[in-house]
Design goal:
The protein is of the alpha/beta class. The chain has helices at about 20-30, 45-55, 70-85, 115-140, 165-185, 210-220, 230-240, and strands at about 10, 35-40, 65, 90-95, 145-150, 190-195, 250-255. It has a 7-stranded parallel beta sheet, with helices on both faces.
């Protein structure tokens, strides 16, 4: 399938072959897109990300740049170097989040210190705004583009142990809508994908995560948990012209769990 032939973009947040960012990259590349990558700095992080990206077995030499998204200087360098090396930016996938795991336990939300609360919002939500600002002129020069953020149902409903991450994801979803309203004039669409729980490095920090997986499988109308490829397919749609009329949305890809009451 060559639905995305000629499209080029950045994937932020590939940590390993289980991360949503990896599955999205897999789907976009299979659809004909070129993907460049950013990962966390540090020898261990960079080696793990490079191993996962090489597992994609792409037919081009992967462009990978370390970036600490909490540092404006790193973000400036990331987009400057991308612009130097690429002739266009059609999409950007923001798939990073962070909260101190000691506060990701049931009954610990009220105990979250101010510093850790603000750090969660900064990395999980503000970095998307910061990246959108830097991506805007590049996408405008390309005739428009698609910005995608990754969120989770814990932004809308109370998920035991998700705590401050739920607040941060709610801020991310609201930021997605405000960005969509502001960047639409430049032909830039901004959407969030609310994926179901997936076994990733990030989810391993949430105490009781296994029970969340069991709950989702039991309550899913489709009788199964979400897979990475489900979210990857949705990302292809949002990047492609098939999604050209969609912006400002939080799209649930969780096998229907979000709509269930009892």
């Amino acid at each position: 399938m060559e639905l995305l032939r000629g499209r080029k973009g950045l994937i932020i947040g590939v940590a390993n072959e289980r991360s949503y960012a990896w599955h999205i990259a897999r789907a976009l590349i299979d659809a004909g897109a070129y993907c460049a990558f950013s990962c966390l700095p540090g020898d261990k992080n960079e080696a793990r990300a490079r191993f996962a990206i090489e597992a994609l077995e792409v037919d081009f030499d992967p462009w990978i740049m370390p970036c600490d998204a909490s540092r404006d200087s790193d973000l400036d360098r990331l987009f400057l170097e991308y612009e130097k090396s690429h002739d266009r930016l059609d999409f950007l996938v923001h798939s990073i989040a962070y909260a101190d795991k000691q506060w990701l336990e049931p009954g610990k939300f009220a105990e979250t210190p101010r510093e850790d609360f603000l750090q969660a919002l900064d990395i999980s939500a503000y970095t998307f705004v910061a990246m959108a600002r830097r991506a805007r002129p590049l996408m405008k020069a390309s005739g428009g583009g698609s910005l995608i953020s990754m969120t989770y149902l814990g932004s809308e409903k109370v998920v035991p142990g998700y705590n401050v991450m739920g607040v941060a994801k709610a801020a991310l979803e609201c930021s997605t809508r405000y960005l969509a309203a502001e960047l639409g004039a430049d032909g830039i669409r901004v959407n969030a994908i609310s994926g179901g729980p997936l076994r990733t490095l990030a989810s391993s920090a949430i105490k009781g995560f296994r029970s969340i997986l069991t709950h989702d499988e039991r309550r899913s109308p489709l009788g199964r948990r979400v897979e990475g490829a489900d979210v990857g397919g949705t990302a292809v749609w949002l990047v492609s012209d098939w999604g050209r009329g969609v912006t400002g949305e939080t799209i649930h890809v969780d096998c229907g769990v979000h709509m269930m009451g009892i």
